[in-house]
Amino acid sequence: MIEIRGLKYPVRSFFRAFRVTSGQRCTRRFFEAMEVYFDAQCLEADSKEVPDLDSYIRFRRDACGCKPCFTLIEYANGLDLPDEVFEDPIVCALQQTVSDIVSWSNVGFSSVLFP
């Protein structure tokens, strides 16, 4: 079970409701995406070192929260897509591009609002 500073109950409660109506693949993808997201949030909160640029870019893609959203879009449309869809290079590139746009916009707005 995913657990992060006070979020255990809300996540568990949502996940129970989610998996009642979600397909097995969608449920697995959502759980995996939330683990990646929470791990990135914990890393950001606990990290004292400055990563190299490539590591930072990979980290921002995990920390921006897009990966769980992709699964929620699948769920909201009542789909349980085969894993091959998410392994397709075009879909992977699209998800990475969306994550980059969101994460870099977030970094840009944060630096303007909190210099």
Q: What distinguishing features does this structure have?
A:
77% helix; mainly alpha; globular; single chain; 115 residues
Write up what this structure looks like.
With about 120 residues, the chain is mainly α. The protein has one domain. Helix content is about 75%, strand content about 0%. The protein has helices spanning about 10-20, 25-45, 55-65, 65-75, 85, 90-115. α2 packs antiparallel against α4 (about 65-75) and α3 (about 55-65) packs across α6 (about 90-115). The protein starts with 7 loop residues before the first helix and ends with a helix. The model has no long low-confidence stretch (mean pLDDT about 85).
Low-confidence stretches: none
Largest sheet: none
Q: What Rg do the Cα atoms give? A: 15 Å
Q: What's the total number of strands? A: 0
Quote the distance from N terminus to C terminus: 36 Å
Mean pLDDT across every amino acid position: 85
Beta-strand residue percentage:
under 5%
Which of globular, elongated, flat, extended, rod-shaped describes the shape?
Answer: globular
Share of helical residues: over 70%
Kindly give the count of domains.
1
Element order: H for helix, E for strand: HHHHHH
